[in-house]
Amino acid sequence: xxxxxxxxxxxxxxxxxxxxxxxxxxxxxxxxxxxxxxxxxxxxxxxxxxxxxxxxxxxxxxxxxxxxxxxxxxxxxxxxxxxxxxxxxxxxxxxxxxxxxxxxxxxxxxxxxxxxxxxxxxxxxxxxxxxxxxxxxxxxxxxxxxxxxxxxxxxxxxxxxxxxxxxxxxxxxxxxxxxxxxxxxxxxxxxxxxxxxxxxxxxxxxxxxxxxxxxxxxxxxxxxxxxxxxxxxxxxxxxxxxxxxxxxxxxxxxxxxxxxxxxxxxxxxxxxxxxxxxxxxxxxxxxxxxxxxxxxxxxxxxxxxxxxxxxxxxxxxxxxxxxxxxxxxxxxxxxxxxxxxxxxxxxxxxxxxxxxxxxxxxxxxxxxxxxxxxxxxxxxxxxxxxxxxxxxxxxxxxxxxxxxxxxxxxxxxxxxxxxxxxxxxxxxxxxxxxxxxxxxxxxxxxxxxxxxxxxxxxxxxxxxxxxxxxxxxxxxxxxxxxxxxxxxxxxxxxxxxxxxxxxxxxxxxxxxxxxxxxxxxxxxxxxxxxxxxxxxxxxxxxxxxxxxxxxxxxxxxxxxxxxxxxxxxxxxxxxxxxxxxxxxxxxxxxxxxxxxxxxxxxxxxxxxxxxxxxx
Amino acid sequence: xxxxxxxxxxxxxxxxxxxxxxxxxxxxxxxxxxxxxxxxxxxxxxxxxxxxxxxxxxxxxxxxxxxxxxxxxxxxxxxxxxxxxxxxxxxxxxxxxxxxxxxxxxxxxxxxxxxxxxxxxxxxxxxxxxxxxxxxxxxxxxxxxxxxxxxxxxxxxxxxxxxxxxxxxxxxxxxxxxxxxxxxxxxxxxxxxxxxxxxxxxxxxxxxxxxxxxxxxxxxxxxxxxxxxxxxxxxxxxxxxxxxxxxxxxxxxxxxxxxxxxxxxxxxxxxxxxxxxxxxxxxxxxxxxxxxxxxxxxxxxxxxxxxxxxxxxxxxxxxxxxxxxxxxxxxxxxxxxxxxxxxxxxxxxxxxxxxxxxxxxxxxxxxxxxxxxxxxxxxxxxxxxxxxxxxxxxxxxxxxxxxxxxxxxxxxxxxxxxxxxxxxxxxxxxxxxxxxxxxxxxxxxxxxxxxxxxxxxxxxxxxxxxxxxxxxxxxxxxxxxxxxxxxxxxxxxxxxxxxxxxxxxxxxxxxxxxxxxxxxxxxxxxxxxxxxxxxxxxxxxxxxxxxxxxxxxxxxxxxxxxxxxxxxxxxxxxxxxxxxxxxxxxxxxxxxxxxxxxxxxxxxxxxxxxxxxxx
Lengths: 615, 615
Hints:
The structure is a homodimer.
Chain A: H1 8-18, H2 32-50, H3 54-59, E1 63-65, E2 68-70, H4 73-84, H5 103-116, H6 118-137, H7 140-151, E3 155-157, E4 176-179, E5 185-195, E6 204-213, E7 223-229, E8 231-233, E9 239-242, E10 245-250, E11 261-266, E12 273-276, H8 283-319, E13 321-324, E14 336-338, H9 343-375, H10 379-414, H11 426-433, H12 443-454, H13 461-478, H14 484-508, H15 513-518, H16 520-551, H17 556-563, H18 567-586, H19 588-599, H20 603-606
Parallel strand pairs in A: 3-6, 4-6
Antiparallel strand pairs in A: 1-2, 4-5, 5-11, 5-12, 6-7, 7-12, 8-9, 10-11, 13-14
Cofactor (chains A, B): FAD
Subunit structure (chains A, B): Homotetramer.
Keywords (chains A, B): FAD, Flavoprotein, Oxidoreductase
């Protein structure tokens, strides 16, 4: 197998034909040829260097001894090459050591790398997120001392939010910061679930830490952000003493064993010194500014792992011979066929295909929105697009990671009994994927964010802008021959969705607020369904004319008969099949969910704790 | 926590109030008091002896050395006590050493034991299934030598079907049986994925083996069944020589590590002798007679593990304090609440509750059907009920295990980050549950069985009988005050379902057969939805009058206000909440799926292999 991570043809389709890259002088040097070269290089690194760490991460995992965490040996080489290739800051400003790529292109590179080993790439995700925090909020000294080394991956980064009694409820945290005479702070507290909290891939680790300055207000309004290095950094940038950030435990987890999930004790065995990052008591708002990026990265993890699950299952289904074709009947001479020929296996593969493609299109679109915000001079467009990103974030994080687990589970099922065994990657991909629904804000939190904040932000105008983008694609589809049935169905669903969104939004502001939030997750689900229908309709808009040109028809049977060995025609036929399958077969399931939200059954609010049962 | 496996009040409700036990002289001694005693004893054994093996099974697992498999130490004591309590043959004929309990009661006992450790109880499941094979097809010698010891758990049992090139396609197997002069057979071949294939819990293991006698017809028509002991058995019942059934490998799996999944080489290192069980070339039909039982057992595994996931999550949600109540708004004095008070957590718990309860009711109903078949003199009822069991089997196995994974996944989510860690049982329950969708016929096979065999068996009359049972409950519900909305919705859904079943059945017999089978799994899903709606309506029929009597109203708000400390009222209110939630909020999702089946989009048939993508 050449590589089991992503379908390069579909990557190119989304990158060059559907979503496209932003045309701006900042991206001048990234013409199609260069972009393709970059994607190929990322793919090569992913296959040759990162993929071989996948099993090591799971089987060897991370070990803790005397406060030091050791990652698998193969991780070191992969990390070194990843950093040497300057991938860590591929989309960042050249001034901070970045390569200034469009985010869409970065998306393609990440897709391969994360799909090769999501636990390994979490070291990247944490480091990049922390680097951006220093870039956005650091003072000159902090930037000078930390930033470039972090963007280069020489030093790692993390994010220290969660405490034993403060998980989703960040405002409850108790880690204390005490001002010292020299303007630094002494930090004391315990943080848990710290991804990449301690490891041996980097010379130093820089921890952004949420803590409370003595006397600060209660709740989230009294939280400040600090930069706390593992080793203190001298003025000349050299490493000083150990700063008493002690890893006291590693979580034993269902998956992503290759990433160290640490309990960190700060300042228990000696002074732990940090410097204020940004303003006092503004820690939460700083965090929120980074949140879109980190949530989108978790979405990329879900997507890339789902894509890998699909490619592996497809490969297996194409080679595994078992059973005769359903239509063979009693013909004793009929030969056994590859299992991709069995309708139920095919249905599962098509399911995996449509979700993977929907995820890909949405991610690249999201990335393009970021590029637009970064480059446009049109203030209205910039503001609208920035808001659109916020609206899309819970879908990118919540819906995609929910569906990623489903795709990975299908991936196990396609293999039959082998899918449950460690001999094939399917079961690890599924175990790894289960965390994506939880970290960076559980999907319940994402659903509340969509309903409680995104639906009503800017007086609902941002949500209207979001729906308008979908309508634009519907109008586009109306002009294209052969998409009649599809666009009508998406339009009907969108009209219905519009009613539901309005109704649940009103409910959330009424005395029925508890009822509204009981349906927050179903609302996230139908929103995701609509967005994926949009993405598939959009893909069909691009593919339909090209397919018609190549085979002279869009009729599925005629197409199947004429595709022959024309790989391009086969590809576009696949895009059309996905759109049809999603819109005709999966989207209808949304209607019932929409009805249920409108009906708003009160069982969730009404049921008493005691009625849930007893032992 | 007293026990985290099953809700005893709901067990009693299903056992005594909803489904009830069969009234027959064979079950005379099992009055309510005795039944409750049995359930309590099973519960005690499950909690005190089996539950402590749960983690051992996962962490220590099974090890293979020199062909011998060692199970965790704690398994030995649990197995010994399980066998001493005569639980293995609890529902079997006293003549074979059984206790002759009704299956409904056995269902309750199993629920606790399997929920405590499904991997451990798989040793029971395999042994019991093999014992029944000997009982049904053994000659006098085989019965005398093997049967009682197997039913007593002194000797274990297995089932040797699968081979490397013959998984779901059993007919392709190649294990060879050669007749010896003394009437025995020499067996040679390799079997894989053998649950409980080799272990140290029993003195001997008796393997029913599917093999092909030299010269037998190709395919399933040439397969015979043999009894192959691990150690040969002398005429006096004592153990003879090792019979060359060699465990050459253990599968490394995602879960159920406590059960040894073996590769067994038969006759590679010396003669391996078996005796024919039943008739030559009738091995498959013998297997099929056992299949309902083994598939139902996998359904019990799914159900019991889901129930355990629910009880654990409920316990956690009731004790874990985090965040303020949604309605606390900006009230700074509002205290944090237990997470069961957060609408999204409550929604997830209610989801887990309704599926667990639906599974429980369906399982006990299925068991009661078995009791009816076993005891009734009414030939028509016997035949109809036997057929109903066959119709229900793919739902009990396929739908329940699909939903069990979902319930277990919710179970992880309720814990947040802790759910992903091994500190709590949630993640293991989810990993364990993933196999249930695969073994004993993948759920794709179950879906094909429902569509291809069960829908049309006895010219469709058995399916009509099945639908009639649902209609009976609807008619019953019409007579009960307060169920108007619920029964109308179930009736509407059933009418719609009826149309879909007829249409997809006709399609399966037409030239559109591939299209029909592409929708086999969605058809299984909607069938399961309808069955669960039925079960919940039935439960409501029982609970509504009792609740009305206790609190004078069925209005959810009024009920919530009046329940107070009345535990019984709280329980019935919970039954009603489940019914409302399932029928009002989850069942509508089925409509869209039904529409999609009727529309019958052709993408799955049309898409070419090459259009699935490339690397």
